[in-house]
Specification:
Length: 438
Amino acid sequence: MNRLPLTMVCTCDLAGQVRGKGFPAQVLEAHRSKGVGWTPTNSMITCFGQIVSTPFGPRNDLMLVPDPATETHVDFGDHGPAEHFFLGDIVHTDGKTPWDLCPRGFLKAALADLEAKAGLRLVAAFEHEFVYSGQPPRLGDSYGLDGVRLAGAFPEVFLYALEMGGVRPETFLPEYGAGQFEVTVEPCGGLEAADRAVRLRELARATAYRLGHRVTFAPIVDRRAVGNGVHIHYSLTDLQGRPASYDPARPFGMSAAIGSFTAGILAHMPALCAVTAPSVMSYERLVPNRWSAAYTNLGYRDREAGVRICPLWEVEGADPARQFNLEYRAADAAACPHLALGMLVRAGLQGLVDALPAPEPTRSDPGTLSPEEAARLGIVRLPQSLDEALQALEADSAASGWMPDDLRTAYLMHKRGEILLLKDFSPDEIVDRYRQAY
């Protein structure tokens, strides 16, 4: 069957969904600078494919311009269409003025301010969990070799797609849940890290589709089982690329800069959840004793901390300064990676500007702390619903101010519309809708 290859230019939107427009690949050069047309209200489509409300209506036009650094082209060798897409920037029709609701533009502005105001750059990596429908269930597969074997060709085809797509995988493993896997990628600069997160999700879906199955990154797939998280690893460098997060003379190896940066994140974490854990089901994960995050605490090698200090490998030849990183754990794949990372950068930069002292790590369950000790450490419970998180964002004048006015208005409208769409569904029906959407 003859075909005309298709190329897509896409954006990862407020719902964390990848949407775009395509054109015949043979006219790619004509679209490199002018991109494709885009409509403001497209950004108000919820993860369920409906528009509940929009501040834009049917008016105005924009451009979605591809970034050549994000070109993803993977031929799976199955005689089917290759994956060929770009991520792009949403700009006004002059082709250069950023639109305030563009997620990539939001992250770019935050990273530029981190450089200009603090002389620092962000290094990041997104660690994903997802469930693959093609693995036959078998008791005892958690972390097991047979868990990979039973997934058939999926692991190797997926790793091939990531490598060919420029996403640079590091590790792949069967996780605790039935049919659940975790994949990590190499750390890189902030914008590229968010781009890789988007591309990874799409290549996982593409791989599963070609094998006759599906994957889901939904935060909860079964209310009686573990959920899927996204852990955002981060560190800092100076403008010459030298590591700026590690100082062996300071507690836990945290430099003054990374200490203030992390203090800013923790201080604004309830508000950040509105963007990093932005689904109704996200808050089924963010509860104590679920190996997720439930409090605004810094933990030393603690997988239930809001932010975790990751381990250093003390083997010969390992450079601790280049290894040292922290992990933000209150996130999932309902979030747009660009918006989530942009808000973390803004919070961290606020901590640097305010010269906040490094947080004191907890050594035990924050839920067992006395009210006085929790107050001394600045530890509070994270929001317990999406509505609570949205209220926390509105109440935090600094955090809400990091978003341009139009973005903040649209985002709150978008998420409250999502809540409204689910009001008549049972919890299990809500889980199923998110499972399908992500």
